[in-house]
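Task 17 of the worksheet. Students: predict the tertiary structure of the chain below and write it out as structure tokens. Keep your answer in the requested format; marks are given for formatting as well as content.
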Amino acid sequence: MKKILIILLIVCFVASSGIVALAKVSFGSWDKWDELLPPWDNKGWQEKTYSTFISFPLLEGSLIWLWVNEDWEIIKVGHSPSAGTEDVFFLLTRLSFMENKKLQASIILFSSAQISPAQIDKAIKNISIEDALDVAEIAIVAFPPKKGEVVVRAYERKSGSFLFLEEWTAQFKNNSVIFPEKTTEFTQKYESWINNQFQQQGIEEGKYHLSPRLVVNDKKKEFFIAVTLKVFDGEKIKTPFFF
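Model answer:
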């Protein structure tokens, strides 16, 4: 009798463990965040997208976020005397996944800069969610905060889909670094991907460093992932803006 009870207990434990392992992560109308990103035609995607070419000096028309008077302001970059001399790193696209007008996920997509700066206006104005997902190679997603932390998930494009790669948590505060202190598999992939962009474009190794961070707007109760740029020219220069 005792053996039967023990066997039953083991079976129940294994069954319950299986239920936990198979539980889906649901934010909005998508419950497979632990497997892959939603397809482009999912109703949760906000139609408006924001895309920009990450460059230095900044390309004309780029939108950047500046911290002014304890709040974020969006500034559009005007014409620069340095126009035409930019090092263009890659295309960044920011997407939002919504439900009932509430943010369920903030996403940034990283794509190789495969078109010339002369085509930028047309590319950015015409880019759709389908196109953005189609050309991107890696992605980072941040979910709504809970108990002072946000869950961050990384994805990599494989076989036509963005498959889940890794998950960790980050502190929910303005300008906090998205990547954990301990090196992760995705951190290595990200650094390798960025360095590969520099090599393909003939950019000096170590000249730039691009770091994903969490931008928090307390007044509007909003947050999103952004990328800050550091330029190394003899001495490190911390640029006070985010893409």
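Marker's comment: The longest helix spans residues 2-22. The chain has a mean pLDDT of 77.
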